[in-house]
Amino acid sequence: VQLQASGGGLVQAGGSLRLSCAASGRTFSRNGMGWYRQAPGKERELVAAISSGTNTYYADSAKGRFTISRDNAKNTVSLQMNSLKPEDTAVYYCAACSSCFLYKISRVQYEYDYWGQGTQVTVSS
Fold this sequence. Notes:
Layout: E1 2-6, E2 9-12, E3 17-24, E4 31-38, E5 45-50, E6 56-58, E7 66-71, E8 76-81, E9 90-101, E10 114-115, E11 119-124
Parallel strand pairs: 2-11
Antiparallel strand pairs: 1-3, 3-8, 4-5, 4-9, 5-6, 7-8, 9-10, 9-11
C-alpha cells in the first residue's frame, strides 16, 4: 500500500498550491484521510481531514484558506492551499485512517496508519 504525495514547491506569499495524494494497493474510499505538516523544529500537526462521508476538519490556521477534497473514483485526496503565508512552510504528509469509517474524522495522529512520503512546501516572504 502506498500513498504518493505531490504538488509541493516554492511559492511567494499570497500564492497558491494544490497538493495531491494518490493511493495505490488498496482503496481508501470508505476511510478518513488527512493532511499533516511538519515544520523544522516543530511537531507534526493536522492541517485538514476529510471523512468518507465528506465531513471535513480544518486547523484554525487553515480555515478559510485551505480546502480538502477527495475523489473516491481515483482514490485520491487533495489539498488546495490559497493565500499562503511563510508560516505554512513545512513538509506536508497525506495520511489515511483505516479505522475511520463513514463520518468519522480523526484528529489523533496514531490513528492514521498509512502515510505518504511528504512533499515540501516553501512559502517565501
